Amino acid sequence: MRPSDARPHKHPPAPPLTPPRLGRRAVLAGLGATLAAPARAGRTRITLRLHHFLPPMAPMQTAVFEPWAAALAEASEGGLDLQIFPAMQLGGRPPQLADQARSGIADLVWAMPAYTPRRFPVAETMGLPFMVTSAEQTSVALHRLMTEFGGQDFAGTRPLAFWVHAGGKLHLRDAPVAGAADLRGLKLRSPSASMGDLLARLGAEPVFFPVTEMVTGLSTGVIDGCCLPYEVVPAFRLQELTRFSSEPEPGGRGLYGNSNVLLMNARRHDSLPAELRAVLDGLSGPDLSRRIGASFDRFETAGRQVVLAQGNTITPLPAAELARWREAALPVHADWIRVLEEAGLDGAAILSRAEALLAAGV
Q1: What is the DSSP string of 117-166?
Q2: Contacts by 113-120 with C-beta closer than 8 Å and gap 24+?
Q3: Do domains 3-164+258-300 and 169-255+309-360 have the same CATH topology?
Q4: Which SS3 state, helix, strand or coil, does residue 105 take?
Q5: Is 65 in contact with 283 (CB distance < 8 Å)?
Q6: Phi/psi of residue 112, nearest 5 degrees
Q7: Gap between the Cα atoms of 136 and 338, Å rounded
Q8: Region (Disordered) spans which residues (predicted)?
Q9: Cα–Cα distance between 325 and 10 in angstroms, integer?
Q10: Which of 41, 95, 274, 339 falls between 20 and 30 A from 209, CA-CA?
Q11: CA atoms within 13 A on the CB side of 178
Q12: What is the pLDDT of residues 56-72, one digit of tens each?
């Protein structure tokens, strides 16, 4: 699927990505204008395939990947043609995406380290419970953390951006959750092993599987609810499958924010003509991470409005209750330090640096 084949979205647009050689001239003539420009006469035209796991109408495709594809095409004068394949159209399951980038099944992938627990330990660190402020700030913090400590996590690939979605919320089918007492006995789809550990400590029964299998779980009653940001709700119509959501009161950290990475096959990256590689690298890196994070903050607001428009109930989780949840999460963080140490890393230093970056609000 080319970017132009996707459905128009109903989410607030991300700010345009500006190619470095074009000053501040707008990349997109209008929302959804994502056709690659014709290649300049005599210029090499390279087609890159980007594979991801969400449906084509998901805001990550319509408001991030498609504008990025347009920016790459314009900055390269048509030399880079990014084709987007959503919903695992190139085959496999979401946990296999990182390996698809490494093997070259896809040139680029959107991978989520939580789907392969402990394989990418530094990247997973920011996905621990209560390690997310805003998506934008946490994405910048994650990118810096990976630059400083995560060099071995993605050997054989070229990470182009790291980001975190907005803090997760609880979404329930049958009853609201206002505190840990309401979680007891509930089967909840957990977004990660570490968040599942916390949910178990709070009395719930965590179940882990990729987000793409969640609709079936809710529809059949295999699970009573899930832990996800609002941003995911419209793509899977979760507002119709759940009736209650619970969110932290404003001002504190979110329940969790899974780490994400845009990976490129290393050989494919390094084999690009130097001029095209410079364009790709110039539109990747820390600035792209920040922009994606800021986009997820906007997606969260839009997703919450969908929940409210459905007539669902949103229950606040009071600060005093969340303080008890954060205390329950301390052993989860201590266990993760040991996981990092088992991987030959300085676990205490990595977690301390992550906390410092979050506190600094980078």
Answers
A1: TTTSHHHHHTTSTT--S-HHHHHHHHHHHHHHH-TTTTTTEEEEEEEEPS
A2: 113/153, 113/258, 113/259, 113/260, 113/261, 114/191, 114/192, 114/193, 114/258, 114/259, 115/210, 117/192, 117/193, 118/193, 118/339, 118/343, 120/150, 120/153, 120/154, 120/259, 120/261
A3: yes
A4: coil
A5: no
A6: -120, 110
A7: 28
A8: 1-22
A9: 35
A10: 339
A11: 2
A12: 999 999 999 999 999 99
Average pLDDT, the chain: 90
Those residues with Cβ within 8 angstroms of residue 91's Cβ, 6 or more apart along the chain or in another chain: 105
Question: Domain limits of the chain?
Answer: 3-164+258-300, 169-255+309-360
* Residue whose structure tokens are 């990475």: 261
Q: Cα(262)–Cα(146) distance, rounded to whole angstroms?
A: 13
Closest listed residue to residue 140, CA positions, set 126, 151, 128, 150: 126
Predicted TM-score (pTM) of this structure: 0.87
Q: Look at the domain 169-255+309-360 and name its fold.
A: D-Maltodextrin-Binding Protein; domain 2 (3.40.190)
pLDDT digits over 229-243, tens only?
A: 999 999 899 999 999
Sign of the CA dihedral with 181 first, then 184, 189, and 193 last: positive
Backbone angles phi, psi at 309, to 5 degrees: -65, -30
Average pLDDT over residues 35-58: 79
Q: Facing residues of 244 across strands?
A: 172, 313
- The domain made up of 3-164+258-300 has a fold known as D-Maltodextrin-Binding Protein; domain 2 (3.40.190)
Sequence-separated (6 or more) residues with CB below 8 Å from residue 318: 178, 179, 249
d(CA 302, CA 309): 11
Alpha-helix runs per DSSP H in the chain = 59-60, 66-75, 97-103, 121-125, 135-149, 193-201, 214-220, 233-236, 238-241, 266-271, 274-282, 286-309, 319-342, 347-360
Give bridge partners of residue 169 from the DSSP assignment. Answer: 228
DSSP string over 167-184: PPEEEESSS---SGGGGT
**Helices 347-360 and 135-149, interaxial angle, to 10°?**
150
pLDDT at residue number 33: 34
Structure tokens at 122: 């530094």
